[in-house]
Specification:
Number of strands: 10
Structural class: alpha+beta
Shape: globular
Low-confidence stretches: none
């Protein structure tokens, strides 16, 4: 089969790229090994771009290993950083590049339908994301944890790829990087593209550089 390429979009609310962030606030998945959790976001990004690999791990609520991206627009990325959920360190690829390597949009499943996800093939299960505001049980009722806990992450505009092995890429396939410190570009001068410079300015304008 010779697949047609994805369309390049010109839409104010849609991006032609996906970004893998290497730092976030809050709890990280306990499935991520200590040697990775102990690295700074800058160190993780450096390791990723130097090795050409992003390792995947099971996210919350799913047993399958995945590599996660966001397809948020520039404004959406700014929101994610300004809200302090994500730190200004990440690597971006064209959607066509990520799609060719098996990535695709996550799909959202209502919490009261979540039990059906376990019956899906692993390729689909890995992209399932629970969408639910949480709930309280009635008197005498026992709710499963996935109904009691909220999970509302539409703003992350997530793409995933099932990761039985690392997501591999070449330097030429990197669309741009998001960096919070200009020194990172000086250390890895081969990544000092125009886009990377713009993203550094973008992070600096958000007051998040050196975070």
């Amino acid at each position: 089969m010779r697949r047609y390429p994805l369309r390049t979009l010109d839409h104010p609310d849609l991006s032609n790229h996906v970004v893998h962030f290497t730092g976030r606030t809050g709890l990280s998945s306990p499935t991520v090994p200590h040697e990775i959790r102990s690295l700074t976001p800058e160190e993780r990004l450096a390791q990723i771009v130097l090795t050409g690999q992003i390792r995947g791990f099971p996210p919350f609520g799913i047993d399958d290993s995945v590599v996660c991206f966001t397809d948020a627009t520039e404004q959406g990325i700014a929101y994610l950083m300004k809200e302090h959920r994500y730190l200004p360190w990440g690597v971006a690829f064209r959607k066509e590049t990520a799609f060719e390597k098996g990535a695709g949009p996550a799909f959202y499943v209502r919490g009261d339908e979540w039990d059906a996800v376990a019956e899906l093939p692993s390729e689909l299960r890995a992209r399932a994301t629970r969408f639910w505001p949480g709930a309280e049980p009635d008197v005498g009722e026992n709710l499963p944890g996935y109904l009691g806990r909220p999970s509302e992450f539409l703003h992350e505009r997530e793409w995933r790829v099932r990761a039985d092995r690392p997501f591999e890429f070449t330097t030429e396939e990197i669309a741009y990087i998001i960096v919070g410190d200009r020194g990172f570009l000086e250390a890895l001068s081969f990544l000092a593209t125009q886009e990377a410079e713009l993203e550094w300015e973008y992070a600096r304008a958000s007051g998040l550089e050196n975070t």
